[in-house]
Amino acid sequence: MSYVPSTPEQRRAMLDAVGAETYADLYRDVPKEMLLDRQLDLPEGMSELEAVRTMTALAEKNKVFQTVLRGAGSYDHFIPAIVKSVPAKEEFLTAYTPYQAEMSQGVLQSIFEYQTMICELTGMDVSNASVYDGATAAAEAAAMCRDRKRRVTLISAAAHPDTINTVRTYCFGTGDELKIVPAKDGKTDLDALKEMLDGTVASFYVQQPNFYGQFEDADLLGELVHAAGAMYVMGCNPISLGLVKTPRECGADIAVGEGQPLGLPMGFGGPYLGFMATTAKHMRKLPGRIVGETVDSKGKRAYVLSLQAREQHIRREKASSNICSNEALCALTAAVYLAAMGPNGLREVARQSMAKAHYLAEALTAIDGIELVYPGPFFHEFVTTLPKAQEVLAALEENGILGGLPIAEGVLWCATEKADKASLDRTAAIVKEVLAK
Amino acid sequence: MKLIFEKSVPGRHCSLLPKCDVPDAALPEALVRQTAPALPELSEVDLSRHYTELNQRVHGVNCGFYPLGSCTMKYNPRVDEDMAALPGFAGVHPLAPKDAVQGCLSVLDTAKTYLCEITGMDGMTFQPAAGAHGEFTGVLLIKQYHRKRGDFKRTKIIVPDSAHGTNPATAAMCGFEVVNIPSAPDGCVDLEALKAVLGDDTAGLMLTNPNTVGIFDENILEITRLVHEAGGLCYYDGANLNAVMGVVRPGDMGFDCIHMNLHKTFATPHGGGGPGACAVGCKAFLEEFLPASALMQGEGRLQVRSFMGNFLVVVRALTYLLTLGRDGIPEAAQNAVLNANYLMRRIQGTFEPAFDRVCMHEFVLDLSEYKKETGVSALDVAKALIDYGMHPPTMYFPMIVHEALMLEPTETESKETLDWAADVFREVYARGKTDPDYLHGAPHHAQIGRPDEVRASRNPVVRWTKP
After folding, report:
1. Is B64 among the domain residues?
2. A103 to chain B: which residues are within 8 Å by CB?
3. Do residue B386 and residue A103 have CB atoms under 8 angstroms apart?
4. Is some CB atom of chain B closer than 8 A to the CB atom of A142?
5. Least Cα separation, residue A332 to chain B (angstroms)
6. What pTM does this model have?
């Protein structure tokens, strides 16, 4: 099966029409010695039913947990039905980048609405149409900040390890230096940052809440960074922004983050959504697509891909980034999620996630031998000590619970609004039982 | 139509969450946001209708012909969507223990087996999220390779002037100096121009084959040999792989690494601009430089994004690969090429192809003579097609052809559709000869008339603001 609709008779007629005896005639420019002179060493094609059987069998080899108490960059939030059905609509699904505004107003308007929602969440003036994920958003933000004099990028050690490594990789690409600001007590070490800030530093990136779930002193960090003349980039959990001070309120120049919590499934890591927003001042440095409002030839409101002079298809090697395809359908998903939740619903998801995490933390630390590793306030993730960690986690898994993530500093737990009190109580009971053995 | 914010009614909402069944946790006052985000307040029926209305103002592959050259807008099978939505894939945490994710690892492994066989590569990563991201990943392989060998003088990447803009932009992001070489008149590599720039500062060459005008470069073995002889590596931009999959392999053309756009060649949906997914393949000697996730796979390697890539897109692509199998894969390529040649010949006689010879999966029309004669530009013709419900071809690319329209019909269009499309082109051609003003004003029956792009750029309005 190859989804080719033309019948053998039609194919014959078309070959005749173009003066070809066989398909091989169409490949006459390919040097003979290079042509594959055998069949591909692959199985025969399958019917749809066989493919469904094969793929379903693979899916069944994975274990799906009823309760997920693990986050670390991928979060198990409730996804309302409408958030799944809208992006599944075939037109949204199968269109490409809206190059032709006259037949793409639906995509363009949906992106314009998404950009507005990201601006509202972050407090910023302008958002792009998305980048690949939170880690690449951080890397692109760092690139926005570098100029001829200031080339060094600083990143907090308390950021997600994949974000740090991705920013490192992008810096390796351009040959720029990345320095890691150490953490102390699970947060960015302010004194260390002070020492590292100098006239060569282009930007500093902090994650709020950070990898350990801790709230950073975001305002203070911003003041230090700005006093040194550098740019301040904040990576935010978008759910937390229903409740928590915006990056704009903290003085950030650029706000980025991983949009997966906004209605996207965990999906073994992707596709996710990198959001990026900044102040009006830096608008023309923002990479990627940006949709703008204008009028059409009849004076009617219309939307277009705008400010394209920044992009690779115009600027080639002088472009601000090479990005072309982005995560548009994921951005649409996030927009539907935010619209379904509304301001109150989003605050409620944030409030409940935080409440559940604190309830779980209390239940766990009530058990002998388990303590919080870091002292500061946290959002919906926290690190504990955990004796017999492997044994405990295995016992939880047997009971359909994915426990916290073992990391060097302890175990990193997470709870969202999806975990009900009963499952949290059950978790604590199982942990207690294993430790009592 | 109204923006979603203009439909908002204070106090309206969807009913989605239960009451919280645990005590509240207090957020320290200093951390509380000062004003609530002005998100829309809507009921579910409002939402459903808003997005249905928007969706009706979108042209997808399911709506009709979409010959957007270089983008491979083939049909996206529905079964692929069903498979990606299986809870056994969608519900998997990327950091779940190994024994809980064996199915996911099998998906990646099987997809790798298929794609390595199709391309003649040995190693592969699925971490990059899109084609340009794959280029970045691939060129970083080249960079690491030279550095590991202590060869720091290789600072230049060669890119033909017919290349996609992402190629030079990628080379720059990888810290290389971009050497643009002029193409021969047929868009193929000018061997003399190539020889003139090759040297011990050459890190590599980035090339699309078939090239961006839809012609297979018959000198390809000589090209890759010359680059290797100079000590450089050869990077294959897989944007045009659909023409040759199962027929000829980039690995056999002499390429060292390659990216494939799963959202083009392997039929996963384009989603209004993404998400795509990209597989980067390489020969065995480059495998040690492939990226990995620090958190999932340990430190020590580069990585281009979090976790292991756009996994659910790989699920779709694998489903497609399974259905095509060893015969369907070349069958798709051959019919993509047949459809392009057929459409080109059916249009010929009105708009003329830039190159009057057999093409691969796409071809370029050169409207410069027609414009001289009628004043009607490639843009005018593109806009006129919209009135027929056809998505216009890629315009003004590649830059080596003036007034270019680039058509890629793909294999999933029937002869009837191609005949219809050719008739539309012929009709537009005739109209432009007698009534050029009609085309200057096109489209006449679309969602909007031509938008004022200058205004959008000079006076940017990039978000809605509460009145």
Report:
1. no
2. 58-59, 386, 391, 443, 446-447
3. yes
4. no
5. 9
6. 0.98
* Number of CB atoms found within 10 A of residue A298's CB: 9
Domain architecture of chain A: domains with CATH: 8-60 (no CATH), 67-78+343-436 (3.90.1150.10), 81-335 (3.40.640.10)
CA distance A418 to chain B (A): 9
Q: Is B155 within a domain?
A: yes
| Joined tokens for residue A88 | 């599944």
Number of domains in chain B: 3
Whether residues A265 and B170 touch (CB distance < 8 A) is answered with no
CA distance B33 to A240: 10
CA B194/CA B180 separation, integer angstroms = 10
C-beta atoms of B16 and A80 within 8 A: yes
Instruction: State the DSSP string of A254-319.
Output: EEEEE-TTTT---GGG-S--EEEEE-GGGGGG--S--EEEEEBTTS-EEEEE--GGGSHHHHGGGS
- Whether chain B has a CB inside 8 Å of the CB on A52: the answer is yes
Which ranges constitute the DSSP H helices of A146-283?
161-174, 190-196, 218-227
Domain containing residue B432: CATH number: 3.90.1150.10
Q: Using the beta-carbon criterion (under 8 Å), do B169 and A322 form an inter-chain contact?
A: yes
Interface predicted TM-score of the whole assembly (ipTM), two decimals: 0.98
Co-location of B310 and B189 in the same domain: yes
Which residues does chain A have within 8 Å of residue B122's beta carbon, measured at their own beta carbons?
Answer: none
Per-residue pLDDT of chain B (467 residues; tens, 9 = 90+): 999 999 999 999 998 999 999 999 999 999 999 999 999 999 999 999 999 999 999 999 999 999 999 999 999 999 999 999 999 999 999 999 999 999 999 999 999 999 999 999 999 999 999 999 999 999 999 999 999 999 999 999 999 988 889 999 999 999 999 999 999 888 899 999 999 999 999 999 999 999 989 999 999 999 999 999 999 999 999 999 999 999 999 999 999 999 999 999 999 999 999 999 999 999 999 999 999 999 999 889 999 999 999 999 999 999 999 999 999 999 999 999 999 999 999 999 999 999 999 999 999 999 999 999 999 999 999 999 999 999 999 999 888 899 999 999 999 999 999 999 999 999 999 999 999 999 999 999 999 999 999 999 999 999 999 88
End-of-domain residue from the set B292, B322, B352: B322
Domain hosting B20: range is 4-27+37-55
**A199 burial via Cβ count (<10 Å: 0-12, 13-18, 19+):** exposed
CB nearest to B114's CB, from A42, A112, A327: A42
